[in-house]
Amino acid sequence: MSTKLLNKADDNLKVAVYSESNNFYDCAVSRYYYYLYQNIIVYVSQNVVGYSSVNTQNSHSDTIDEFIKSIKNRYNLNYAEIFKIQLIQQLRTQRNKSDYHDRELKTQFVFKRCFKDNYDTVTSFLKAKAVI
Amino acid sequence: MLDIVLKTIKEIQNLYPTLYVSYDYLEEEDIYEIWHNSIDLRNNLDFQNNIGKIIEKNLYNNDLYNVFVDYNEEKTNNYEFYEKYFKNFEIIANIWDLNVDGMLDVIIEPITANVKLNEGLNYKRGKIESCNQDYALAA
Fold first, then answer.
1. Using only C-alpha atoms, what is the Rg of chain A?
2. What does pTM read for this prediction?
3. Burial of A22 (0-12, 13-18, 19+ CB in 10 A)
4. Which residues contact B84 (CB under 8 A, 6 or more apart)?
5. How do B31-36 and B21-26 pair as beta strands?
6. In this structure, are residues B12 and B34 in contact, taking their beta carbons and an 8 Å threshold?
7. Which helix (H) or strand (E) is B70 found in, with range?
8. CATH number of B2-71
9. What is the 3-state secondary structure (H, E, C) of B83-121?
10. Contact at CB, B135 and A107, closer than 8 angstroms
11. Over the stretch A39-94, which tens digit does the pLDDT of each residue have?
12. Which of A64, A84, A104 sits opposite B135 (nearest CB)?
């Protein structure tokens, strides 16, 4: 299951990069977020006792809460790292706005400030920890 | 939960007295957003350390993870718009004991039309609420 889900995550990343380069910024937000979220699901499935990725009752909220808790304890995060990982919740709110709300990210400037800067911060941190 | 969020805001304000800090509860996502108005602090290591420390002490140690602290581009634009165009007017109107809400209703529509606000200015004293601003203005 993990391999297939990670393949889907990589597909989402490719679409995200394509969307960003073609100025489809809200679409890019959604796809970047799902690339990250599917990696989070795989991590939580493998590292959190009792978590089942096939249980649809596990909401994004529950899954991300478990992820932050697990990463914090496993890596004994310093304060700056805690600041970085908490930004996942900000990315979740932006994904919701991009998918469902009547707002449009029209420029790369706003896209970066509303989403991409934090996405880069979070993914760089998680890659440094070899989590994704 | 809200009391801890307010305590967290107060601690941030004590460390950064010139920073505007507020919060919103985002019901759809069940997240408390604690937002501020300084993009420059986002990548400031001292700020990250200070905020991370407060988050761990107040929130994570209490098993509360549905919260984040960050700069908010949209809300900062709305806040600065209010500060620039309405704050002084509101202070003067209050001194004269005028019906500021009624007066703002009259003047908001033409002003917001000029700056291309999609849904007009939604404001409350001391806190700017969600306002769907045209992002092209910020670029």
1. 15
2. 0.81
3. exposed
4. none
5. antiparallel
6. yes
7. strand B67-71
8. 3.30.300
9. HHHCHHHHHHHHHCCCCHHHHHHHHHHHHHHHCCCCCCC
10. yes
11. 999 999 999 988 876 665 558 999 999 999 999 999 999 999 999 999 999 999 99
12. A104
Whether residue B137 has pLDDT greater than 50: no
Q: Does position B129 have pLDDT exceeding 70, yes or no?
A: no
Asked if A105 is an interface residue toward chain B (Cβ–Cβ < 8 A), one would say yes
CA neighbor of B16 nearest in space, from B61, B46, B56: B46
Interval B89-115 mean pLDDT: 58
C-alpha distance from residue B1 to each of B5, B71, B130 (Å): 6, 21, 21
In angstroms, the CA A12 to CA A18 distance is: 10
Residues sharing a CB contact under 8 Å with residue B88, sequence separation 6 or more, in sequence order: none
Tokens representing A24? 């489809």
Which two structure tokens, joined as six digits, stand for B128? 């700017």
User: Which amino acid, residue A22?
Assistant: N
B3 contacts chain A (CB < 8 A): no
Inter-chain CB pairs, A–B, below 8 Å: 98
Selected residues 52-111 of chain B with any CB under 8 Å from a CB in chain A: 52-53, 55-56, 60, 63, 65-71, 73-74
What interface predicted TM-score (ipTM) does this complex get? 0.92
Cβ pair A118, A91 in contact under 8 A: yes
Which residue's structure tokens are 């970047």? A32
CATH number listed for the domain at residues A2-128: 1.20.120
Higher pLDDT, residue A1 or B31: B31
Tens digits of per-residue pLDDT, B17-68?
Answer: 999 999 999 998 999 999 999 999 999 999 999 999 999 999 999 999 999 9
Structure tokens at B15: 């460390």
